[in-house]
Amino acid sequence: MDYIPENTYLCIVKQDDMIERKLDKIIKKQLFKGKVIVIVGPRQVGKTTLLGEFVRKSDKRVLALNCDEPEVQTMLTNTNVAKLRAIIGNNELLVIDEAQKVDNIGLTLKLIVDNIKSVQVVASGSSAFELRNRLNEPLTGRKFEYQMFPISSSEIIDTFGLMEERRTLENRLVYGSYPDIVMHPEEARQYLTDLAQSYLYKDLLSLDSIRKPQLLDKLLQALAFQIGSEVSTNELARTLQTDGKTIDKYIDLLEKCYVVFRLGGLSRNLRTELKRAKKIYFYDNGVRNAIIQQFAPVNLRDDIGALWENFFIAERMKRNHYSGYYCNRYFWRTTLQQEIDLIEESDGAMTAFEMKWNPTKKVLFSKSFTDAYNVKETVVITPDNYMEYL
After folding, report:
1. Is domain 153-389 annotated with CATH 1.20.210.10?
2. I need a surface site. Which of 30, 43, 257, 320 has the fewest CB within 10 A?
3. C-alpha span between 219 and 239 (Å, rounded)
4. What does residue 331 show for φ and ψ, rounded to 5 degrees?
5. How many alpha carbons fall within 13 Å on the CB side of residue 185?
6. Which CATH number applies to 22-147?
7. What digits encode the pLDDT tens for the residues 339-376?
8. Residue ranges, CATH 3.40.50.300, the chain
9. What's the rounded Cα separation, in Å, for the pair 99 and 107?
């Protein structure tokens, strides 16, 4: 074991009020199937805590390495099978946190999977695009990859019950669902401000391709004000006094860092459908509100409709990912101003969702849409029924 430096193990702290994460059970079902398990997601979302609990509860012999440590980075870089066998020893489970910080980590993990078959590797990383770029080619066909999100509504119910989920709904519409926010709501504003100003973009700002960090800030503010509305790259470029290619590049990087995600417009059958349209949402309402420093309570907000729409679409994404439900996602809009907030297409059938914060507001789904497509179900999502779909 000469290759293992001191102080490389993950810090494992027992918490009696630990939130039960969906990925915990998912990962355990995939152990020892001959593949690396990769967990990606934004910073501060709970990946290290998940790994720590996973290590603490395991009945296997575990080696847990934190790649924030320079010694660990050196140990796992440009290595060979003999060294890896010495590092792993008789451990059955190898847990690697912040794996993206190791050069050629994909090749290292490939060596382990192909040559040390008795060992299960679980690796996590905050910089999703960097981790994927280093893993995809070497580990093609050799990995299960999962995304970790901020706390989901179903995780709150599993841990605290349905009454707590409903009691805290309005707070999460404003402050979001990052673990520290859910567990320490009294510090929400300070935590979110710190997150939005430093941690969340740390990976992005370290890239040579981000030459205009001030432009990134302005772009995020513009996107925050446009949730629920169609986004025009050219319009953003004119407003921010730059070019469309730069806007597209920055949005792509923000997606890969799990700050925002795109929803494309559905356009197949009708001449009036908007082509190449897109909306952009935030993975977390709290991050969105921190970017524009708007933390007013729900009853004082004029953007509650947009917040509710962003919240449900992000929660639905979490639900689908954790349950293994695969579908294409769109919104729908025509030149006649007909619109549907969210459409999920699975096996050729579509489910259409409209989000309304006011449960008494009537909604009529466009007959043009229901006649043109194979629509399985139309649903109006309100605070009264949203959990049925999460």
Report:
1. no
2. 30
3. 9
4. -120, 170
5. 13
6. 3.40.50.300
7. 999 999 999 999 999 999 999 988 999 999 999 999 99
8. 22-147
9. 12
